[in-house]
Amino acid sequence: MAEPLYQRALQIREAVLGESHPDVANSLNNLAFLYQNQGNYSAAESLHQRALQIRETALGENYPDVANSLNNLAELYRVQDDSDTAESLHQRALQIRETTLGENHPDVAASLNNLALLYQNQGDYEAAESLYQRSFKIVETILGENHPDVAVSLNNLASLYQDQTDYGVAEPLYQRALQIRETTLGENHPDIAASLNNLALLSWIAGDLTQANTLFNQSIDIEETNLALNLAIVSEARKRAYLVNLQSTTYKILSFHLQAATGNPDVAQLALTSLLQRKGRTLDIATNELQRLRQNLMSQDQTLLDELTTTRTQLATLIYGGLSDRTPETYRTLIGDLRNQVEQLENQLAQRSTEFRQEAQSVTVEAVQAQIPLEAALIEFVRYKPFDPKASPRSEQWDTPRYAAYVLFDQGEPKWVDLGEAAAIDQLVTDFRRDLATHRQSIQSSVRELDAALMQPIRALIGGQKHLLISPDSELNLIPFAALVDETDRYLVETYQITYLTSGRDLLKLQLDVSNQQGPVLFADPDYDNPGSPDTLSIATNFSLSSLGEETKEKAGQRSVDLNSLQFGPLPGTAEEISAIAPLLPNASILTGSQATENMLKQVQSPNILHIATHGFFLGDVPLVAPPADPNRATILVETLALLATPATPSNLENPLLRSGLALAGFNPRQSGDEDGVLTALEASGLNLYGTKLVVLSACETGLGDVDNGEGVYGLRRAFTLAGAESQLMSLWQVSDYGTSEFMQRYYQKLKDSMGRSEAMRQVQQEMMVDAAYSHPYYWAAFILSGDWTPIEGL
Q1: Based on CB atoms within 10 Å of each CB, which residue in 12, 159, 385, 675 is the most buried?
Q2: Residues 594-645: pLDDT tens digits?
Q3: Residue 102, Cβ neighbours under 10 Å: how many?
Q4: Which one-letter DSSP state was computed for residue 323?
Q5: pLDDT tier at 486 (50, 70, 90 boundaries)?
Q6: For residues 271 and 224, is the Cβ–Cβ distance under 8 A?
Q7: Does residue 126 sit in helix, strand or coil?
Q8: Cα distance between residue 771 and residue 761, in whole Å
Q9: Are 85 and 111 in contact (CB under 8 A)?
Q10: CA 279, CA 291: separation in Å to the nearest integer?
Q11: What is residue 565's three-state secondary structure?
Q12: What are 322-380's pLDDT values in tens digits?
């Protein structure tokens, strides 16, 4: 809960002392450190820069507090691998400190230590050792032998000797640092986890796998404790940043197992435990926070939720509306203000949810295993960077990324396989997706090659299990495993029922019994060209099926979007689709034409099924709208949407939850009551679908988004999970209008017949495979089922 206190202190000081007072700089510095430790580097940099400017102006360029700001900025740049900038700032800070404080001051020791760390990372061990030794002597003399800063110096000296393979000298220094930290910092401090990790690496190098495993287990227990505390009180973006800070530890543990201890079942347990605890963690925590709030809703919580929904809508409307008659600077300022408001509201809601926190079931291999059905196998894929602690220099310790998979059954030990370099597999994924999405006739080569690289090694581990619970990672999130072809030329869907999960940890919450507030709600055939109805009446069953209209199949299109113009044509197949589905769903509410609006969708409250048949889109190249010009920053990423002159890259793209969405009534004129007809994924994440059994997005590319290693797909798939849906049926490419209609009619009939959600899809896929009109996997493999696979009761 440190952030609200720091924020409050900053507000008081600014109000009482003025925005340029040195004490304001102190508050900015404290808040910046908090953000830096959470991995929120951009926010930290802005605050450090402002603190530096205040101190230089108020105190003079050679004041010790100025050196503090220079040091803080230098460290921020160092951890982001900007060594040149970091060295320059560290040198200036050291010079100020030596001049004003004397050569034996603890702050001088800190500058010496930080410069040494920089030189160590660059491989200049001689220069680093001299500075480390000098720093150590100062802190030990001034602060005493058992001060935490002494532990820092000991730890850094030990790491230097480790880099030089002088392990006998390094180990006692690590041990002494650990002893000081345990005595002075408490048993769950992150620095203790760091010391344990360092000692684990030395044991690994020495071949003592049992000791390394023990130390790694102790380390991840501490990290897990701190994860639970820190992830519960910040926004989703900052949750992700915090987890990135721990990614190297996860990769080291996976490498320890997969590269050094492949035959050790205890190490396998450690590796799979760390993977289950961290993969998909951000989504899991964020979803639980919203559910806790909705279950314990108070007036202030509803106010915050409403304000967040409104602010997200305003942000999405600005992004899709463009500059209009605004100046670029005004446009950037408006968007920057809205982004900040969204971040602040998400933080407040995260903090509010902690008041209703319930003890969650521990994520262990045994707990997950207990939820795996008898004839099923959990396949947990992971993309990781192999680590070699013996390599020198330090820059050579990390190898190119690889894929691996862990397989877990309802009982017995986990199994695993390293699948090879990620780049080669990712290229096969690209070829496979291209061939399927373009309806290519000759696909045998790509589907078989990918299966041979990906699933053939895993089939050797899963035995006779027929239900695969697949938790993909990275680019594997974007493929339908059902369309892979095995050695006998059979599609995998012919052998296996397939269900997708974000992580095996999903199994711990899928079987919750949650009641619904509404019956099925169906959206279809929106009127894109005319303003949507501004009605905000409660959804009811008074929309006539006859109003869907009759359209000829010759007018049918694909449920896709022209990314250049963002205009949509009609989808007559959706009318036929809803006409066939509605009789199968008792008490269904149907919204079509001008009634199929964003307003109406946002009023939906936990229907048991939500079906949306419309155009869906994922925009891969929308550039980030940069913040307004800041004189303290050397550059900004881009100008505005209209002024951007350089190609978009992953680092300057807009939030993926603003680049994916659904088109509803009034989309083309961007007018639908008080909405614009565009439901972005960011807005969809705020829907109340807690208790909804199934969301079906009968539209194009609704399962796509930005792939985040370890966190799944950032797009509509993630948004509807955040909203609370138990399962989602979504597409991976531009789907055929009438082919999709046929697919959906068959699917709902099987759900009506009490078939499970993923088995129903498998049966439909097998039926369409033998239908000449739909035999190509382009038609039957586009949709995937993610989440709960069991039957939906009461249909």
Answers
A1: 675
A2: 999 999 999 999 999 999 999 888 877 666 666 665 433 232 222 222 222 2
A3: 10
A4: S
A5: very high
A6: no
A7: helix
A8: 15
A9: no
A10: 20
A11: coil
A12: 667 778 788 778 888 888 888 788 777 777 766 555 545 678 999 999 999 999 999 99
> Which region, left, alpha or beta, applies to residue 207 given φ > 0 means left and ψ of -120 to 50 means alpha?
left
Q: Are 630 and 636 in contact (CB under 8 A)?
A: yes
Alpha helices by DSSP H, listed for 322-421, are: 328-353, 365-369
CA dihedral 545, 546, 552, 558 (to 10 degrees): -30
Report the DSSP pairing between strands 660-663 and 678-680. antiparallel
Asked, as a colleague might, if the bond just before 393 is cis with ω within 30 of 0, I would say yes
Both tokens of residue 379? 């396949």
**Segment holding 254, helix H or strand E:** helix 236-255
User: Which phi and psi angles does 469 have, rounded to 5°?
Assistant: -95, 100
The predicted pLDDT at position 232 comes to 62
DSSP assigned state of 547? G
Q: Which of 66, 107, 105, 60 is nearest to 89 (CA)?
A: 66
Residue 318, token pair as written in the block: 């600005």
**Considering only CA atoms, which of 304, 307, 283 is closest in space to residue 294?**
304
pLDDT in tens, 166-178: 999 999 999 999 9
CB distance 377 to 412 below 8 Å: no
Could you tell me the CA-to-CA distances from 220 to 37, 178, 226 in Å, in that order?
Answer: 17, 16, 10
DSSP output for 618-633: E-S-PBP-PPPP-TTS
Rounded average pLDDT over 51-80: 90
Phi, psi angles (nearest 5°) of residue 787: 110, -145
Write the pLDDT tens digit of every residue in 590-606: 999 999 999 999 999 99
Can you say whether the dihedral through the CA atoms of 324, 330, 331, 334 is positive or negative? negative
Q: Any idea of the CA torsion for 451, 402, 720, 683, to the nearest 10 degrees?
A: -130
Distance of alpha carbon 507 from alpha carbon 372, whole angstroms: 7
What is the rounded CA–CA span in Å between residue 224 and residue 249? Answer: 12
Is-contact 617 700, C-beta < 8 A? yes
pLDDT band at 466 (very low <50, low <70, confident <90, very high): very high
Chain-centre distance for alpha carbon 234: 14
Q: Which long-range contacts (CB under 8 A, 24 or more apart) does 26-31 make?
A: 26/51, 28/54, 29/68, 29/69, 29/72, 30/6, 31/3, 31/6, 31/7
**Cβ contact 6:47 at 8 Å:** no
Of 601, 666, 682, 657, residue with least CA distance to 310:
682
Tens of pLDDT along 507-532?
A: 988 755 666 668 999 999 999 998 88
* Exposure class string for 553-575: b at 16+ Cβ within 10 A, else e: eeebebbbbeeeebebebbbbbb
Is 0.85 topped by the overall pTM? Answer: no
- 702-733 pLDDT, tens digit per residue, is 766 666 666 666 688 888 988 889 999 998 88
What single letter denotes the amino acid at residue 89? L
Rounded Cα distance between 12 and 764, Å, is 63
**E strands, 502-593, in order:** 521-526, 589-593
Pairing of strands 694-698, 609-613: parallel
Q: How far apart are CA 342 and CA 320, in angstroms?
A: 17
Question: Which DSSP string do the residues of 664-724 spell out, in sequence order?
Answer: -TTTTTT-BTTB-SEEEHHHHTTSB-TT--EEEEESTTTT-EEEETTTEEEEHHHHHHHTT
DSSP of 642-667: TT--S---GGGB--HHHHEEEE-TTT
Name 81's Cβ contacts closer than 8 Å, sequence gap at least 6: none
Supply the Cα-derived Rg of the chain in whole angstroms. Answer: 28
Distance CA 20, CA 763 (A): 68
CA-closest candidate to residue 421, choices 458, 447, 383 = 383
Half-sphere exposure of 579 (CA within 13 A, CB side): 14
List the beta bridge partners of residue 398.
Answer: 387
